[in-house]
Design goal:
This protein is mainly alpha-helical. The protein has 3 domains: about 1-205, no CATH class; about 220-280, no CATH class; about 290-509, no CATH class. About 80% of the residues lie in helices and about 5% in strands. The chain has 20 helices and 2 strands. A two-stranded antiparallel sheet has the order 1-2.
Length: about 500
Amino acid sequence: MSLVDTTVVGLTQANAVVQVAAMGPATTLIDSLQYLTYFLAMATTAQIAKFLALEDFRTLQETNSQILGVAAVLGCIISAILFLAGKPILQALIGGSSTSPELVSLAARYCWIRASVAPLAVMGMVAESNCLANVDTKTPAIAVFSASVINVIGDLALSFMGIQGAAIATAVATATSATIMLRRVRRRSAQWRKQELQQADASSLTSGTTYLNGARDGFTSVEKGYPTTLGNAKNANNNQEETSPIASSSESSSSPTSSNGSKANQNASAETTTTVKTRIPKEVPFLSFPNKKSLTDLLTVSGPMFFVMFGKILCYGAMSIRATDFGVVNLAAHSIMMRIFFFFACFGDSLSQAVQSFLPTALYPIPDVKNTRKMLTRFLVFTTFVAVLIAQSSHWILSNLGSALTNDKTVVAAIAKHSPFVTLSLLVHPFIMLTEGTMIATRDFKQIMTSYSVITVMHFGLLLFSCTSFKEIWRVFFIFQSIRLALFGTRVFRKVARPTVQQQKSFAS
């Protein structure tokens, strides 16, 4: 959607260079803040996929509810940051120049409009990951298609408003997409509730005893009559949990003096039936906030993911900040090139989501090394196809279709001149996301955090000391991508593709 915004503004506005240049830091700020919360989406995929494999429907409901609650809070925090401190942050990003007051004003208006739907945007990312973890690609596809159509129509209809019209169109499209996916997640939560009740019912039928889940709080009680043996009936009486008030009143009314042979009938009845009080967990709300234990469990998974996303945002943001040192034309070109990169990077990101969704089926409850290798081999073949496709497509667009993205000839020339390293960065990106997704699926969080600590420091050092021209910004980024691939690829090959016996045991634990 940011790419469409940039394109429409670049083609329809008289002062296209200034407005497109303003969209660079504006989209970097709003997209970076929202992307920073993507760790929740990654945690959702990891957690939902695991508990689906274990068929733990109660935990699925609780995890989904709590992550959505946290997502709503983080979305509100993003809105508050942009409304209260957006302009000073943009001023720092853009720096001082003759056009900076106008750039800051335009960029701030864009951010404020999109900030109004930030809570829905973050919740929508979580809902999308929920769908993908359930191997539901239809709902996200419908949501993305709807958002794309609304965004394009809205951008064109509101083009007379310039950058503000683009922001309004994107905000409406974001809200539409999030609503579609949240409705689907709500229906899926209701299905998990039914499956949980079926499990509780089956447990009572097979055991003839009270269904209890001592690991969780909050139950409602219902009474059901189940066939049982005399021994189970005695156990129920001894536990004093399965004799209901209804059964007691029935026995007292059927005393030996009430009718002939009633005592014999009671003995026969005791041998065949008993009333079981089944404790059913209370319904989980659609949005909730985790307690201390649940928050600790969530942070165990999402904490490392936050660190990963923060490292990525720092690297992407540092590139935009460095681009401001080379003039408005190069900043406008950089804005378009970043939008192209992020557009095609989505194809690689989908591979990370896919491997996180499918790989747990080979890891839980018992790890299957042979099936894991087979699955990763198939992913590798498909990733190669995706990498070549997006690299060729991005190269052709940047080299030949710059005029379709902006009407300024100097910006078009800059895009074509500096496109090779964008293409190379996109060529390795799908492999990076495949290996990173594999590490997340195997919960190799320590290694991920260590790797990002190293490469983020290297990236900052190269941008600060090695970039003497605009072209070198993207050369440094390609180096950043290459190092990521080397570190992640080596780790996945050693731990997952060729695991030791000890590593195989660690999967099970």
